[in-house]
Amino acid sequence: MAVRQCGYTPGMEHFTIATVAEQSPDFRRVLWTGKHTQLVIMTIPPGGEIGEEVHEVDQILTFVSGVGQAVVSGQTRKVAAGDLVVVPAGRKHNFTNEGPNPLVLYTVYGPPEHADQAIHQTKDEADRLEEQGKDEPPQN
């Protein structure tokens, strides 16, 4: 899957983000890593979840397709295409797919949270690599 869309020029990354996100079959794919932020797309299968977690970084999630549930700091909301959820650093959160189709989203971490160019086909793979210390963000 080509992640750089037309319009790419040196020094600038351009993505048709909804299209790129919907075409990715992977649970998590890092598209771009900068010094202060990181762009990641995720596909959560029906009945799946990101998994309850707490990051030391801020996270902004934008939903492209599907329906789900967001739980942040004990508050619950339904999410669907076009919704955006902000998860400040240090807040416990989880996102679950509540529909019959994949829940597709893109997320921006600030600073980066995952290894540059990481691709995790499944949640199990993502969890295993994190536990093994093989999904660490670049050190600036």
TrEMBL record:
Residues 41-109 form the Cupin type-2 domain. InterPro entries: Cupin_2, Flavonoid_dioxygenase-like, RmlC-like_jellyroll, RmlC_Cupin_sf. Residues 114-140 are annotated as: Disordered. This is Cupin type-2 domain-containing protein. It comes from Actinoplanes palleronii.
